[in-house]
Every structure is written in C-alpha cells, then in structure tokens.
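User: Can you predict the 3D structure of Pyruvate dehydrogenase E1 component subunit beta? Sequence below.
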Amino acid sequence: MLGIIKQKVGARGLSAPVFGDYMQRLSPIASAMRHFSSATKDMTVRDALNSALDEEMAADSSVFIMGEEVGEYQGAYKITKGLLHKYGPERVVDTPITEAGFTGLAVGAAYHGLKPVIEFMTFNFSMQAIDHIINSAAKSNYMSAGQINVPIVFRGPNGAAAGVGAQHSQCYGAWYGAVPGLKVIVPYSSEDARGLLKAAIRDPDPVVFLENEILYGESFPVSAEVLDPNFCLPIGKAKIEREGKDVTITAYSKMVGFALKAAEILEKDGINAEVINLRCIRPLDRDTINDSVRKTNRLVTVEEGFRQHGVGAEICAMVVEDSFGYLDAPVERIAGADVPTPYAANLERLAFPQIEDIVRATKRACYRSA
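Assistant: Sure. Here are the predicted structure tokens for Pyruvate dehydrogenase E1 component subunit beta:
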C-alpha cells in the first residue's frame, strides 16, 4: 500500500522534506493496516472444513462430494452446509446407505481424472468400504507402475464422540496408517483442518482424513494467512504447538488439546513439556519427533486408539531406532483401554486418556512422583 502511495505522491513532484513529512504522518495508518491484515479471528473446525471444501470446489470443477446426507440435509455434522445450493446435485451427491457402493463409484471416478471427496458419517462405517479404500485406491498407483493416480479423499469423524457405543467410537488411525499407498491426516485445530483438507484434495494420491466430532464446534484463532484461498499446509509435517526442554509429548487430533492442558499443569510443578501436534500419521514426521527427543531426552505418546500396535508404538519404535542413545528414561505410552468402548458415561471416560493420565505419565518420565 505504501509503495502505491509513494509512486502517486512522487509523481506530483513533492520535495524530499515535504514527501518525508507526508510519509511520516501516514506511518501510523500503515502500521494499523499491517496489524489489521495480520489480525486473527476465531473459526470453528466445522467452518474451516466447510470453507476449504467450498474454495477447492470453486477452484477446480473436477472436485465433487459424495456421501450420506451431504446434500439436502447439508451433512450429518453440517460440514457440507450450503454446498448443494451453490454447486448443484451433480457435484454434491446424496447416496443411499451403501458405503461399499458409493466408495467404489468414487474410486472409479478418481481413475478417470475426477477428484472425489467421500464423507463417511463415521469412520467406523468405512469398514464397509475398506476393500475399495485399500485394494482399489491405495494399491492402484503401485500396481499400475505409476500410470494410475487415485486423487480421492476419504473424510469424516473418527474416534470416540460421546455416548454412542462401541460401534461408533473407534480410532482408525493405526489401521489406515499401516497401509502403503495411503496418506493419513489427523487435524487438531481450525488451521490444521483448513490447510490440510486443501492439501488432501489437491494431492494426487488417496488420503484418509480423520476428523473428530467433538472438535467440530470448537473455535481456534486463525490468521489472515490461513483464510487466504491459496493457504495450504504440507502433508507429513508435524507442528510444535508448545516448546519445552524437559519432555516431549506427541499427540494428534483431540488429544493435542489434552496434552496442551496437561503441559500447563506440569509447568506449575517445574516440568517444561514440549507438545508436538503430529498432524499426519502417514507419512510420520520422524525429523521433528527425533529432534525434540534429542533435546528433551524423554518421550510420552498420547492417543485415543488402542495401545497394542498403535501409533504410539510406532513412534516409540522409531525413536528407539533413531535416538535411543538420547533417552534418559523409559518411554511412556498413553492410549485407550484394551476394550470395546463402553456406552455408560462413567465407563467411557475411563476407557480413554484424560488430562490427569498425561500428567501422571509425564511425571513418571521425569522421575517425579505420580
């Protein structure tokens, strides 16, 4: 802005002293404008996902949405609100309750250059379509010697909600994270949701995008940069949400918020925790995790999924392979209980990690009393 003013004022032939005084009087205005452009606003995760879908559909006519209740009902969780009215039924496609059927159709569309975004009402229902996700989507690029790209996004709520029972409350991060050919994204904040969904839609490979129902209505501050239609986050890059020197805590999705709250409690006891938001399970950001562990010399992993064969187990193995000599204490793993999710609220709470669990485990890692 100041550059434009300078050009126009200079064209009027003002002397250097007069021009300097003019610019000096403008500087508070310019400062305010810079502050305004970088100011943050609050945005829910729901709105972040909706805006990302809207902008990518507007920018690329090959992008379309398919799933149960995504159109007329505007999404079971209102992630697709307003999109049917804006883009029509050919690009926002309501389907029968047939995950295997509409997922197979979408994978076929991706073979032919379209970019489907498939919404599962819950990722538990993706089990009905797992053959297409893995055998039809994840393996095709490899089996075709790179001749067939499958640019498709499988998205929807993953993990536990509240009081919806075992068949709606499982985390599938470790399941899909074990599959070559897939990219697996696990957003936490509105910035994550917006930037990573855009990246997923633009990616030439199949992406599993695991959201969290509890986070949909949660608001996070976002900057003007995040709201830019061109904003995009790199897939496979973790974010250090909180810097620290005493212990590394890794988490993803809803558990990032729990880890951050635990870190605030630990700070009062003199433990300075570094919290890493993984953002992606596959590819996993080995460099960021190892660099942190080599600085803090301790590691705590947090996840809602099952402990056995879990994401935390993979991170622990990775750190042992790459940074074993830097560890000053055994690794602590915090995960969901090794049972199907109970329906009763009191038992459900016991089945998943809580903030106090993270605090206790971190104190153990730092040789403090639990």
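The mean pLDDT is 91. Residues 16-38 form the longest helix (23 residues).
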